[in-house]
Amino acid sequence: MARYLLGRLVVSSISLVLVVVIVFVAVRLMPGDIVDQFFQDTGARPGQAEALREKLGLSDPIPVQFARYLGELARGDLGESLASGRELSTVIRDRTPVTFQLAMMTLIFSLAIGLPLGVLSAVMRGSALDYLLRTIAIGGISIPFFWIAVLTISLPAYYWRWTPPIGHVPLQEDPLASIQHMLAPALVGTVFLAGSIMRMLRATMLEVLRLDYMRTAAAKGLSRATQIRRHALRNALIPVVTLIGIRFIFLLSGSVVLESIYALPGLGQLSLDALSRRDYQVVQAVTLFMAVIIIMTNLVVDISYGFIDPRIRHSRA
Amino acid sequence: MSWAQNTTAHLDIHQDSISGAQQIIGATYNRLVRYRGDAQLPEPDVAQSWEQAGTDVVFKLHEGVKWQNKPPVNGRDFKASDVVFGLERARSDDPSFIHSGDLAVVDTIEAPDDSTVRLTTKYPTAIILTMLAGYQWIPVAPEVIDQFGDIKSPEATIGTGPFIVENFAPDFGATLVRNPDYWREGLPYLDELEQLDVEDHWSQFRAGNIDIVLVPAELLPGHDSFAGFLESEGIDGYVYSEVMAASAHGHFMNTQDPVFADIRVRWAVNLIMDRLPNRTYGWPIGAKPSIALGMGHLAFHLPDAEFEAMPGFGLGRRDQDVAEGLQMLAAAGFDADNPMEWRIMGWSVPQTLVGIDQLQIAVDMYKDVSGNVLQPSEQALEWGAWKQAEALHEFQMISSAYSMGVDAHDAMQKMYHSEGGRNFSGYANPDLDRMLAVEESTFDIEERISLMQDMQRFVNSPEEIANAWTGSGPFSYAALSRIQGIPMLWDSGRVDQVYVQK
């Protein structure tokens, strides 16, 4: 297991280096920079834009900028926002709880809805309820969630002069208000994620239910509920855990859209604004941070297989 | 009272563009002078009066002005030296102070005593007062910079204005509370202001989450009046306000481009272009033709009757203009067998005056009106790419709209002076540069208006044409009807006079 983990860490480190290089170069290949944005209203006096680029270190050749960036990273310094001058470690620390709260609420709602409905749909295969649940799940996966998000604001505003609460209240300040503010975006995310979980669990459950050991469990006289809970569900969960891992990553990176629509000051909103402002430092820092989170999530998912299925643990050992 | 606005990265307006923070800054700080409520002309703010003679402007400050009661100033008396410090900071040589170019004309700023500011310009200029009414020219207390280093954070945002910044988060919004010690007695009326950084402003307004909103232009086409629009939407309980925005739109031709270097081509485009679709899309109600100037500079515009008779602009002479334009194109070598092809660049988002759908409309318009002699294609770019193409003159034609500055001279200077900050077309004529200099040093307002109108005629003549302007129009604001006293220039820092009708 230790050897396996070590191997994964090496691969993860290589991935991180690649992310750093690609993001650093890619943002600089985009046309326009933050200096163009500064002067959009005013126009620059002769030489001013060049002087500002030099001050911000943007006039240096890209390899020089990259070496400087690596030096900062080596010191554990994510740098400062070119636009606001704020320390990026502080900015990311302030924004992360919002994105994670949204992702966690979405995940919890999705598991609470997707898991039982997936089991129910598999167990009642071919019934009217099965067809109904599958239809709803496919609908949830098929309809773009940003479209649902926009509708949750514009439709009630038009017909009832009401919208879900906008903005954000920190969880530690007022937990109830915080959850209320996060409810609508989390539920919109849930529509998508719960459908995926339900469909995946149904499919894997159906496979497991056909296997010999399930017949053996029934022949032993175990109750149907025990057969499902102890033998079917546990084995059917492995692909679902993989899916949850992938979808959780999607929730983090896909938060750009939901945070923007619901005015949530999270990492997604931050990176979107930074991209449009050409605030390279912010884009690099957020991407690096997200890459670390994603790689760690994958690692956790891999390790969790071992706990769900001891055969995997033993084979890796 | 609340409103929605995309917020800036920080509050140091000396170091950022004014578009995201002007409402917050306008409510928090006073300037020497501010815009008059009904026009972009100066009126006293912390300066009670002023005398202008030649290159000298001497301001006398109001008595009793105090800084807001926040550390480190703690409500101390406001002094002329604070004005000097603020303006000197804003015009610093440090390139981060991005507005400094606008005060390049200023030679010295002094405070002979605590209530007098003397400003000397390098040459007599009639526009210095209007320039100083800009939101960026705020006074700053030196001890604030000593303590915080800048005025980016809400703690460091300390003015003498009617509202105090309580909190601010980039991309989230700001809350401002009433300044109980405001030096204008009895003001402000409101207890709290809230700026929210949210999407879909109109839905938020309809839901009652914000009190005042810029009505999206895409909602208004097909309506002759705002009242008619409200009626069709089944909306009551709102009032409507037209704000004299300083923005204008046009198709700008790169005079360095092989196709558009030929002035006959530029003139032909100017004649053939049907300005109405763009103009009425951007400003569905109240649009006007204009050359370089926004509605905020309405006094300096050419008269409506003159526009009506002007080649390219006059609706009554479209057939004549188009025929003449096609003749010009033929003389330049373009006809149905050899159509003129070029690219119009714009922004990749829909539903804006310069967006992708408007590019398509423009392309179809040029083709239809010219009988396919003009055959442009559209190129919609991401925002940064679009702005870079403009700044580097890497375009043939670009569709752009600009906030045209606080003063009509400023607008014309940036757009047409050979060294103008927005002269993206590459237009250069020493005669026009001289005309701008003469106009700037003319103090009689009527004479200035006349000179400004002459320049509009000049740059829109067959010998000079570089930019095909479509027009300008007011911003249309809606507010809950209980909100009263909204000035025509809603974002002018006159928010201290807004009140709620009980």
Write up this protein.
Chain A has helices at residues 2-29, 34-38, 48-56, 62-74, 88-123, 128-142, 145-160, 175-209, 212-219, 224-253, 255-261, 267-277, 280-308, 310-316. Chain A is mainly alpha-helical and 317 residues long. In chain A, helix 8 crosses helix 10. The mean pLDDT of chain A is 88. Chain B folds into two domains: 2-197 and 477-500, D-Maltodextrin-Binding Protein, domain 2; 247-470, Dipeptide-binding Protein, Domain 3 (Dipeptide-binding Protein, domain 3, Roll), CATH 3.10.105.10. Chain B contains 15 helices and 20 strands. Chain B has a five-stranded mixed sheet with strand order 15-14-16-13-17. A four-stranded mixed sheet of chain B has the order 1-10-9-8. A four-stranded antiparallel sheet of chain B has the order 4-5-7-6, covered by helices on one side. Chains A and B meet through helix 2, helix 3, helix 7 and helix 12 of A and helix 5 and helix 12 of B.
In short:
By secondary structure, chain A is an all-alpha fold.
What layout of secondary structure does this protein have?
The complex is a heterodimer of chains A (317) and B (502).
Chain A: H1 2-29, H2 34-38, H3 48-56, H4 62-74, H5 88-123, H6 128-142, H7 145-160, H8 175-209, H9 212-219, H10 224-253, H11 255-261, H12 267-277, H13 280-308, H14 310-316
Helix pairs in contact in A: 1-13, 5-6, 5-8, 5-10, 6-8, 7-8, 8-10, 9-10, 10-13, 11-12, 12-13, 13-14
Chain B: E1 2-4, H1 22-28, E2 33-35, E3 42-44, E4 47-53, E5 56-61, H2 80-90, E6 106-113, E7 116-121, H3 128-132, H4 142-148, E8 163-169, E9 173-178, E10 192-196, H5 201-206, E11 212-214, H6 226-232, E12 238-243, E13 247-253, H7 263-272, H8 276-282, H9 304-309, H10 318-331, E14 340-347, H11 356-370, E15 374-381, H12 383-391, E16 397-403, H13 408-416, H14 430-440, H15 445-459, E17 467-472, E18 475-480, E19 483-484, E20 499-500
Parallel strand pairs in B: 1-10, 14-15, 14-16
Antiparallel strand pairs in B: 2-3, 4-5, 5-7, 6-7, 8-9, 9-10, 11-18, 12-18, 13-16, 13-17, 19-20
Helix pairs in contact in B: 7-10, 13-14, 14-15
